[in-house]
Amino acid sequence: MNLRSLPNVAVELTIRPHDCEHHSDSNAFPGNYDMGKVLVLFHSHTGSTARMADLVAQGAGLIPGTDVRIRKVAAATPDEVYWCGRIAFGSPTNMGVLSWQAKRFWDEAMGPHWGKLDGKVGCAISSSGGWGGGSELACQSILTVLMNFGFLTFGVTDYASPSMTAHYRAVAAKQPRDDDVQAACRLLGRLLAEWVAVVADVRRDQHPLNKPESRSLPA
Amino acid sequence: MNLRSLPNVAVELTIRPHDCEHHSDSNAFPGNYDMGKVLVLFHSHTGSTARMADLVAQGAGLIPGTDVRIRKVAAATPDEVYWCGRIAFGSPTNMGVLSWQAKRFWDEAMGPHWGKLDGKVGCAISSSGGWGGGSELACQSILTVLMNFGFLTFGVTDYASPSMTAHYRAVAAKQPRDDDVQAACRLLGRLLAEWVAVVADVRRDQHPLNKPESRSLPA
Amino acid sequence: MNLRSLPNVAVELTIRPHDCEHHSDSNAFPGNYDMGKVLVLFHSHTGSTARMADLVAQGAGLIPGTDVRIRKVAAATPDEVYWCGRIAFGSPTNMGVLSWQAKRFWDEAMGPHWGKLDGKVGCAISSSGGWGGGSELACQSILTVLMNFGFLTFGVTDYASPSMTAHYRAVAAKQPRDDDVQAACRLLGRLLAEWVAVVADVRRDQHPLNKPESRSLPA
Amino acid sequence: MNLRSLPNVAVELTIRPHDCEHHSDSNAFPGNYDMGKVLVLFHSHTGSTARMADLVAQGAGLIPGTDVRIRKVAAATPDEVYWCGRIAFGSPTNMGVLSWQAKRFWDEAMGPHWGKLDGKVGCAISSSGGWGGGSELACQSILTVLMNFGFLTFGVTDYASPSMTAHYRAVAAKQPRDDDVQAACRLLGRLLAEWVAVVADVRRDQHPLNKPESRSLPA
To answer: Are B47 and B102 in contact (CB under 8 A)?
Structure first.
């Protein structure tokens, strides 16, 4: 599979029906999340991060059995974060850190759910105004937020081209126009979905959220 | 289970026999690693990080079925990194970044193995000269290295005491003497082992390292 | 001078009169800022960061000739950032990164002034829920924002006590109740003011903002 | 002055004679450093960081009155760090962090001088294997080290081209072959030298190192 040869058309994802009731009593993960469900959630000013989000979703869709949903933070709900097992979170690089709109989603909408979402897998997407403009640092700030929520994150070793990688998540300078930047976005999405398939739930009883008696969160 | 009430004695870990042949053809993960095997690997100048490493190992040993090995970087081999499925890496906070000795292990000993170890789970341990002295930043530098190798890492939401946590891995000011710092170390180890049990290998065929045809690493 | 023995009373600062007209034609720095003017600007949820801001201001006031102003971000204006030569910016540690309210100030209120403020000196203040809870990382995110605006920042080598420093700016776990945390806050403020006196404006003609013909900012 | 039109030839710098006696009793900064002296210090594996160091030195040489010296870490001495007022420190991006050889210089050679060098101005240079490969994070690790030593650092707002900047210091993917990457390197050097001219020593008595009675370093 050559990530660079994929047609650069609008994303067409088959989104399977799903529900968001995260308090059902299934025997799955706490909150009933499904590792096969990928949420690509983003804030975008200029459309660059939005375009990257599309490409990441496209990459995630390459792995059979993955259910991908794309949402803007302004329209997203905590239920959708409960719903997914994996999350790719995108923000423009604003002053080297995720945008305040992107941060507000985690501080305000998600804050009350902190401590109830541990164990999902997350990665970051960001577009800056230029190379050297802080997109790696903005991704780092996103990962810091995701890890605060108890998420796992992962590194990417693969290169999308001889001079483009996503070691610390997908980055771009302005629009992801170059083939290799687009390939890096798809690569990140594919990896996110691959870990969906590999990293799964063998001993659910050992999930920290299934052992409330052993936890100590602030009141 | 109260992590703060554990006796603060020398660690006694039952280390099961194992071998380090990482090129066997078992049906396990690439390189034949076992997610139940935890390597606590560290560099220590003054003994503070070494003591923290002991406590993390003690915490990991709390989860049945976990096989824990402790090693100093000076004596460790790449085989031991292949061996483990999980790794807690410790370094003193030297100028806000992991020590050069700790870094050399990854640059030199492990460099030739880069791209062959993806998918292990790692976390960081560091002791600085004082609170505010850079231990969180040093842990961040360790996580950056681990993610570069394609490892997953995870955030910790739990608090070890009302004023002590390990959100971004175990940290201490000098020796981990206080009960709550010790509890935070054990907590990190326990979490590392819990993820061993939860996050496992359902669809090994989808592991990136099992699909060499889809990867593109630099020559 | 013993920073730990200062009375822990409410801050009483002699704020000298000033004006905010930053477009006057003085022969000072671009925007007419004065390196002797210190702005302590913060967002606080619980009052912890506010208390730290007071202590930093108290420390800055220890250096004669320093003019200190304290402001909450909700009430601050870009004029006040133009006014000062030095800025200590405080935010609670929210998910390991500055709060969205703190970030919004830089993204929205200050965004249009980006590229016009280079050369001020800044430092960071943050309080987290516990040691290990991300306050160093939150300070790092603040410094990333400040550097994006072309500010200088500085490291602190001094220790406030044998186990407390402010290498990467002032941090606290919850309220800055302990003597050594309070001393670290005052120390940071004093250093900020000391650099005011030391680092000054000898060759104003060479200030980047005084050479617009040599600059290239995005349109 | 157009940084992109400079001839891309080997650097020719007029290095003025100087001495390294840093314990003389001049009335200059502590240790007798001279803000007009710039040290470009680097470690390089493949030559990419070395080439970037040349370009940064070239940029610094654009400001009259600047004395530039280039050194490899393997050949550098603490005296040379005392000598300079400004330092640009370069390292390859190795696993997202400065190389162990670069770190060893600060841990071992410079460690005994920690606390005696406060107030110099520093910036970072790094080349990674590809865009998105960690060069911003490696620069961040360098800045963390420099701030630990009490150095000031500064952000760069200017763009070297519409899609290339050095907000968080000079970065490149492999060799700095493209015009805009080269321009960004020169830009960083020029800025470093400009701050030399602007930020100077008005009230030397207030320099923290000139007030030993007010300091508290660990024994």
So the answer is: no
Question: How far is B65 from B62, CA to CA, in rounded Å?
Answer: 9
Judged by CB atoms closer than 8 Å, whether chains meet at A96 and C147 is answered as yes
**Cα-flanking dihedrals φ and ψ of residue A214, to 5°?**
-100, 5
Cα–Cα distance measured from residue C92 to residue D83, given in angstroms and rounded to the nearest whole number: 40
Helix (H) or strand (E) segment spanning residue A90: strand A84-94
The phi and psi torsions of B175 (rounded to 5 degrees) equal: -65, 140
Q: How far apart (Å, rounded) are the C-alpha atoms in residues C97 and C142?
A: 8
CA–CA dist D20, A173 (Å, integer): 43
- If we measure between CA atoms, which residue out of D189, C218, D155, D125 comes closest to residue A130? C218
**What is the C-alpha to C-alpha distance for residues D40 and D59, in angstroms, rounded to an integer?**
11
Which of A211, A192, A35, A44 minimizes the C-alpha distance to A127?
A: A44
Q: How many angstroms separate the CA of residue D71 from the nearest CA in chain A?
A: 24
Contact of D100 with chain A, judged by CB distance below 8 Å, is answered with: no
Comparing B74 with D216, the larger pLDDT belongs to: B74
A100 touches chain C (CB under 8 A): yes
**Residue D22 tokens, joined:** 């840093």
pLDDT digits (tens, 9 = 90+) for C20-76: 333 333 333 444 456 678 999 999 998 889 998 998 898 888 777 788 999 999 999
What's the one-letter identity of residue C93?
T
**How far is C-alpha D110 from the chain's CA centre?**
15
| Residue range B34-44, pLDDT digits in tens | 667 899 999 99
Most confident of the ranges A23-37, B33-47, D136-150: D136-150
Query: Does the global pTM surpass 0.90?
Result: no
Helical packing angle, A179-198 and A48-60, nearest 10° = 50
Q: Do B151 and A154 touch (CB under 8 A)?
A: yes
ipTM: 0.79
Q: What ranges make up the beta strands (E) of B60-198?
A: 67-72, 84-94, 97-98, 121-128, 152-154, 159-161, 164-165, 170-173
Question: Closest to C201 (Cβ–Cβ): which among D160, D198, D218?
Answer: D198
